[in-house]
Amino acid sequence: MILFDILYNITIYPIEFIIEIVFYLFNNVFKSGYATSLFFLSLIINFISLPLYNIAESWQAKERAIQEKMKPMIDNIKAVYKGDQRYLLIRTCQRINGYKTIYAFRGTLGLLIQIPFFLAAYNFIHNLSGLQLGSFLFIKDFSKPDGILNIGNISVNILPFIMTLFSLLAGLIYSKKLRFKESLPLYIVSLIFFVLLYNSPSGLVFYWTLNCLFSLIKNIVIEYKLYKVFIVNKYKILRGYNIFFIILTIIFILLLSLGNIERKGYLGDLGVLGDFERFEEENISYHFKLFYYSKIFKHNDIYEVKVDTNKLNNDSIIYIKFDDNGSPYGNIVLNDYIENIGKIEVYYKLFIKKYIINILIILFILFILFNSYKYILKIFSDSFLEKRNLLIISSCLVISVLSGLFISSSLIGNSPTEFKSPFDLIINDFSMSLGLFLFYPLFIYILFSEKIKNYLTLLLIFVASFVLINTFIMKGNYININADFVFDNTDLLKASLKEILLTIILTVVLISIIILILKNNKAIFLINIYSIVLLVLISISIFDISKIIKEHNKLKNIQVDNKSSDIKIFNMSKTGENIFVFVLDRAINSYWLDAFERFPNYKKDFDGFVFYPNNVSIGGSTTTTASLYGGYDYLPYEISTNGGYNLKEKHNQALLTIPLALEKYNYKS
């Protein structure tokens, strides 16, 4: 089974990863609905796969050309000869024309390309949480079959029929240049997809229907050579895009400047909150919405709002908090009823929503790429072209080993016993990285033209250097990560403006250095650097893996000894006094008094225990419990004054504090 998982991670997961990133970009960052996100996902995936289809088409065209060339000769051979003689003459004819039997499978390449994309999409959409929230026109729930047409008690799914129609039309247009035998698989596959997807979630069928629609449009464009309009007018299109981007940037700057002007608004739609926290009995809590005097500059699809809480010139306000950053809704605590206070005015500024900024960043990247390709060509020196194969392999290996082996093994190596199956995690991560950063880049590198090979190699050189800087220079303090590689506090992953600017500066400097090295025919220097880095990363990873093996063997030996040993773990006296210490994780202090009032029977059960109401937790996670066991000597500050401490050792020392203290009074533990 693990071999199947490795193969899946290398071949299918990279496509699923791209699908997940694109969907997240539109659904979470750009705040698009499920239908819109699936539309753009299908569009982008089709654009990504288009070059692969073009290569498959060119191979098929070559195979068809050879077949057409050989056809008259083979027809003559079949008409005159029989048996072995016919077979040998046909094989001779094929050898003369450079035709191999395996070329017959080139006709199915277009279909084979669909398989990994379909499997990746199927797995992603089937496991997509919240799919039931998606809808489109008559489809109310993307997690179920559409069931649009109902005939009595029978529910008919219409979307699979539409999908199959688009697929058959696409095949019909494409098969104009094919013989019937070659076009037959296209129609068979369309019917197979219909059967497979008929009772599938409508979200998946909707996505694949869009794929079939885009495939139909693509075939129409290719068949009627509509793409030539773009080729002939590519410089005009580029000029038009540049003008569009400049105008868009000017509009963005104007919106940013106008939004930054302070304006006045007021709180309205105030409704009393029954459950909102009260600071004193006489205070009243309200939920509110921010209203604006301006009809243009207010919270909308472009702007988010930020109220200046330092300029609340109203003594009646005790507390105010907005629901979310940029939201016009919030809660307010007043010392009197709103009817007695009157209108509450506030000052606010507007800032551009993040999804608009993200769109502008993408357009800016495209602007740079479209206008800098002439300058990039100068980087491809003779040294670069000569060492290109080594450059791309070394870059891919550095990224793969760093992201898949080094990081996972070093994280697990810091606390091996926290992970039940550490090697499964390492193998899983490493195989994913090999697929993402080695298998597919080299697969694309082998298939595509010299021009694409140059650009791909340059891109991977930049990426390899960038991830090294981000791992070893731009590292942050993200506190705890659990055994599933999930951070306890994901807010710490959000970069500050200072960190973003520093990263941009370092990236620009890095790109400049790499360009300088390549322009001066020093490609071998980069290869040597990457080779040394790769050797170091592998060595450290092997060391961490050996440490993990030792720690797990030690843990297994302890478990075996505990099972076979007759030593008593707990020593309790039948005649003397016993002391028990109960630690209730996540037992929030402020809840206990309310709990005892609501459930008096529990209060009787806890008779004899002492409740200390004025306690505050030192931290938000279990890593700070050492202070609970050991007292003031084990407060986070006291532990952190020694930079070389080991947290596990400090926790073990703290756990011994009470037993050692009681040992002086002849207690045993």
Automatic annotation (TrEMBL):
Recorded topology in the membrane: Multi-pass membrane protein
GO terms for cellular component: plasma membrane
Domain of life of the organism encoding this protein: Bacteria
Keyword GTP-binding included in the entry's annotation: no
Molecular function terms from GO: membrane insertase activity
Protein name: Membrane insertase YidC/Oxa/ALB C-terminal domain-containing protein
Transmembrane segments: 7-26, 38-56, 103-125, 154-174, 183-199, 243-261, 355-377, 389-413, 425-448, 455-474, 500-518, 525-543
Major location category of this protein: membrane
All copies of domain Membrane insertase YidC/Oxa/ALB C-terminal, residue ranges: 34-223
Annotated source species: Brachyspira aalborgi
Family as reported in the entry's similarity comment: Belongs to the OXA1/ALB3/YidC family.
GO terms for biological process, alphabetical: protein insertion into membrane
Subcellular compartments: Membrane
One Pfam family it belongs to: 60KD_IMP
Keywords assigned by UniProt, alphabetized: Membrane, Transmembrane, Transmembrane helix
